From TrEMBL:
Domain Plastocyanin-like: from-to ranges: 76-191, 202-328, 412-529
Species per Swiss-Prot/TrEMBL record: Penicillium atrosanguineum
GO molecular function: copper ion binding; oxidoreductase activity
CDD domains: CuRO_1_MaLCC_like, CuRO_2_MaLCC_like, CuRO_3_MaLCC_like
Entry similarity comment: Belongs to the multicopper oxidase family.
Source organism phylogeny: Eukaryota, Fungi, Dikarya, Ascomycota, Pezizomycotina
Stretch forming the signal peptide: 1-17
Swiss-Prot/TrEMBL keywords: Copper, Glycoprotein, Metal-binding, Oxidoreductase, Repeat, Signal
Top-level taxon of origin: Eukaryota
SUPFAM superfamilies: Cupredoxins (SSF49503)
Entry-linked InterPro entries: Cu-oxidase-like_N, Cu-oxidase_2nd, Cu-oxidase_C, Cu-oxidase_fam, Cupredoxin
Keyword rRNA processing set for record: no
Listed name of the protein: Uncharacterized protein
C-alpha cells in the first residue's frame, strides 16, 4: 500500500517538473507544442534536450510531435552472405533489413507488405522489447495479437518510442525471423557514458546452408541441428568464400556498438582482441557503465557497448570474435565467426589473440547490471511457478511449461477471442489471466534438463530477482533496483525468478527465444487486465487482416505445423 502511494507521488512530482506525464495514453498524447530538440553531443551524452539519463522514461516521455513512417516489403531472395548461395526471406531484400531510426518520444507508423507468395507464407513483424504501452494490438505476434498477414496484403503498426536505446524487429510467425526477416531499431536518447561515434547495430546471427524451415524436421525429431556458420552484421567467410565484416576506427576515438543476438540457437561470447568493452545498456535499459573483456549475449538480448580505439601500438588490425558457446550451441565454424576492427583504411588479416574465457551459456553477472533509473519491486500478489520439460509425442519434440505446450491458432488470435467476449481460453492457448491493475507478478521458471533457454517477455521490462543452477536456496536480489530487461537466461538445470507489474493491458507472450523451442510450444501468454485490453482493439483492422488471411488460406490450403507463434 505504502508502495502504491509512493509511486503516485513520484508521478505528480514529475508532472510538475516536465508537464508531460505519461500515466495513461490519453495524457501521453495530450499535445503540448513540440520544441525542436538537438539531442546531445559527444561530450554531453547524458543529456537529451530538457531531459537526461536520470529521467524516469516509464512515466515521462518527450513530446516531439514527430511521426516517423516506414514502408517494409517482405521478400523472397537468394543470398550468399558467406559465399554460399541460399534461399532466404528478408525485409526489403537485405539481411539485416533496413534500420528504423527514431528519437525518444517519436510516434512510429510502419506499413508492412507481404511478398512471400511463392513460399505461401503469412507474415507479421514484432518490435522486440518495445513496451507497447497501451498499444498491445501493434505487438505483431500471430495467434496472439493478429492473424498472419497474407501474401499481397499489408498491415500497419503504430507505436510510440517510450524507451530509447537499441533493439530489433523480427517476424513472429514460424521460423521466418531466422530465414532473415529482421532488422535494427535505434531510438536516440541520452546515454550513460560519452562516445564520439555511433557505429549502429551489430547483428550476431547463426547461419546454415539449408533454410531454418528445412532444418526444422531434424530439430523436431533428433534435436538441436549443427549449424554451418555464423554472420557478423550479415557477412562472414566459409571455406575461403565470402567476406568478413570490417570496421574502421581512428586512434583515440570512442565508438558505440549496439550488439544484438539474432541467432536461432546460438549463445555467443563477443570480444574485440586487446580492447575493453564498456557496457552502457542492456536491452532497452541504460545502466551504470562497467568494463569487461567480453560479453555473454543470449538470443534476443542486446548490449550497448563503447570501445575506445587505444591499442594502435599493439597492432593495426584486430579480430572481432563472435564465439558460439558449445555448452549450448552447435556449429561447424566455431573458431571462424570473426570480423576485423582496423586502424588502417583497408583491413588486413589480424594476428591478434583472443582474451581467455570459459565456455558457458550464462548471463552477464547480475551485480554488474545496475539500471540508472532506479526502480523497486514490491512484494508479490501473484506467485507463479513453471517447470520446463520436454516430451516426444507422435515422435516429435514438444516443450512444456507446467505440462502445457502452447498450440495457438493463427486464425483465432487471443485479441479476436477477447473482442468476441471469450472469458475462458483453451488449455492449449496457455493463458494466465492477470485481471487487476498495478499488482506484482513473480514468476519462477526452473528445469532439471541440461538445456539453457533465453526467456523473453513481451510488453514489459521484468525485474531479475534470482538466477542460477538448481537448487535455488530461496534468496533473491534486493528489492531495490535489481537488473531490469526483457530477456534473461534460464541456465541449464537452473532457475530464473522474474517479477513485473501489471501496468500494461493486453495479451503478452512469454517464450523461449530459441527458434526451435518457440515453434515446439515453449511459450505462454498473459492476458493482462482483460477489460482494458479489449478497449484497445481496433476490431476493423483486426478483422480485415484475418479475413484476407482466411481467403488466402482457403485458396492455397496453408498448413500450420508449429505452435502458432
Ligand atoms: C522498402 O521498400 C519499399 C518498397 O519497395 C520502399 O517503398 C521503401 O522506401 C523501402 N524502405 C526502406 C526503409 O528502405
Ligand atoms: C514458409 O515457407 C517455407 C518454405 O516454403 C515453409 O517450409 C514454412 O513452413 C512456411 N512457414 C510458415 C510460417 O508458413
Ligand atoms: C550493420 O548493418 C546495419 C544495417 O545495414 C547498419 O546500419 C550498421 O551500421 C552496420 N553496423 C556496423 C557496425 O557497421
Ligand atoms: C570445404 O572445403 C573442403 C576442403 O577443400 C572440402 O572438402 C569441403 O567439401 C568444402 N565444404 C563445402 C561445404 O564446400
Ligand atoms: C590466457 O591464459 C594463459 C594461461 O593462463 C596465459 O598464458 C595467456 O597470457 C592468457 N591470455 C590472455 C590474452 O590473457
Ligand atoms: C504450475 O504447477 C505447479 C505445480 O503443480 C503449481 O504449483 C503452479 O501453480 C502451476 N503454475 C501455474 C502458473 O499454473
Ligand atoms: C523448482 O523450484 C521449486 C521451488 O524451489 C522446487 O520445489 C521444484 O522442485 C523445482 N523444480 C525443478 C524442476 O527444479
Ligand atoms: Cu528454449
Amino acid at each position: 500500500m505504502t508502495f502504491h502511494f509512493l509511486i503516485f507521488l513520484a508521478h505528480v512530482l514529475e508532472a510538475v517538473a516536465f508537464s508531460i506525464p505519461l500515466l495513461e495514453p490519453q495524457e501521453a498524447s495530450a499535445s503540448k507544442k513540440a520544441k525542436p530538440c538537438s539531442g546531445n553531443t559527444a561530450s554531453t551524452r547524458q543529456r537529451w534536450c530538457d531531459f537526461n539519463i536520470n529521467t524516469d522514461y516509464t512515466t515521462v516521455v518527450p513530446n516531439t510531435g514527430v511521426t516517423r513512417e516506414y514502408w517494409f516489403s517482405i521478400d523472397q531472395i537468394t543470398i550468399a552472405p558467406d559465399g554460399v548461395p541460399r534461399f532466404a526471406m528478408a525485409v526489403n531484400g537485405t539481411i539485416p533489413g533496413p534500420t528504423i531510426f527514431a528519437n525518444w518520444g517519436d510516434e512510429l507508423v510502419i506499413h508492412v507488405t507481404n511478398h512471400l507468395q511463392a513460399a505461401k507464407n503469412g507474415t507479421s513483424i514484432h518490435w522486440h522489447g518495445i513496451r507497447q504501452h497501451y498499444t498491445n494490438p501493434s505487438d505483431g505476434v500471430v495467434s496472439i495479437t493478429q492473424c498472419p498477414t497474407a501474401p499481397r496484403s499489408s498491415i500497419t503498426y503504430r507505436w510510440r518510442a517510450h524507451q530509447y536505446g537499441s533493439t530489433w524487429y523480427h517476424s513472429h510467425i514460424g521460423l521466418q525471423a531466422w530465414e532473415g526477416v529482421f532488422g535494427g531499431i535505434i531510438i536516440n536518447g541520452p546515454a550513460s557514458a560519452n562516445y564520439n561515434v555511433d557505429k549502429g547495430s551489430l547483428f550476431l546471427t547463426d547461419w546454415s546452408h539449408q533454410t531454418a524451415d528445412e532444418l526444422y524436421t531434424y530439430a523436431q525429431t533428433q534435436g538441436q541441428p549443427t549449424l554451418d556458420n555464423g554472420l557478423i552484421n550479415g557477412t562472414n567467410v566459409y571455406n575461403s568464400t565470402g567476406s568478413r565484416f570490417s570496421m574502421k576506427v581512428n586512434k583515440g576515438e570512442s565508438y558505440r556498438l549496439r550488439i544484438i543476438n539474432a541467432a536461432i540457437d546460438t549463445h555467443w561470447k563477443f570480444m574485440i582482441d586487446n580492447h575493453q568493452l564498456t557496457v552502457i545498456g542492456m536491452d532497452l535499459v541504460p545502466i551504470n557503465p562497467y568494463t569487461t573483456t567480453f560479453i555473454d549475449i543470449g538470443m534476443g538480448q542486446r548490449y550497448d557497448v563503447i570501445v575506445i580505439a587505444n591499442q594502435q601500438k599493439v597492432a593495426k588490425d584486430f579480430w572481432m570474435r563472435s564465439i558460439p558457446q558449445i555448452e549450448c550451441s552447435k556449429n561447424v565454424n566455431v573458431d571462424n565467426i570473426k570480423g576485423i576492427m582496423t586502424y588502417n583504411n583497408k583491413a588486413r588479416t589480424p594476428t591478434t589473440s583472443a582474451f581467455n574465457f570459459t565456455d558457458s551459456c550464462i548471463d552477464e553477472d547480475m551485480s554488474n547490471l545496475v539500471p540508472i533509473v532506479t526502480k523497486s519491486v514490491s512484494s508479490t500478489e501473484w506467485s507463479l511457478m513453471e517447470d520446463v520439460t520436454e516430451t516426444k509425442s507422435n515422435n516429435l519434440f514438444r516443450w512444456h511449461l507446467n505440462t502445457t505446450t502452447l498450440q495457438a491458432n493463427w486464425e483465432d488470435p487471443t485479441l479476436q477471442q477477447i473482442y468476441n467476449g471469450a472469458t475462458t481460453f483453451a488449455q492449449s492457448d496457455a493463458v494466465i489471466q492477470l485481471p487487476r491493475a498495478k499488482e506484482w507478478v513473480y514468476l519462477l521458471i526452473n528445469t532439471t534438463l541440461s538445456v539453457a533457454h533465453p526467456i523473453h517477455l513481451h510488453g514489459h521490462d521484468f525485474f531479475l530477482m534470482a538466477q542460477g543452477k538448481n537448487p535455488w536456496d530461496g534468496s533473491t536480489n534486493c528489492m531495490l533496483n535489481p537488473p531490469r530487461r526483457d530477456t534473461a537466461i534460464l541456465e541449464s538445470t537452473g532457475y530464473l525468478l522474474i517479477a513485473f507489474e501489471t501496468d500494461n493491458p493486453g495479451a503478452w507472450l512469454m517464450h523461449c527465444h530459441i527458434g526451435w523451442h518457440a515453434n515446439e510450444g515453449f511459450a505462454l501468454q498473459f492476458v493482462e487486465r482483460y477489460s482494458e485490453a479489449k478497449k484497445l482493439i481496433d476490431s476493423q483492422a483486426l478483422e480485415e487482416n484475418c479475413a484476407s488471411w482466411k481467403t488466402y488460406d482457403r485458396s492455397y490450403n496453408v498448413k500450420q505445423e508449429d505452435s502458432g507463434i
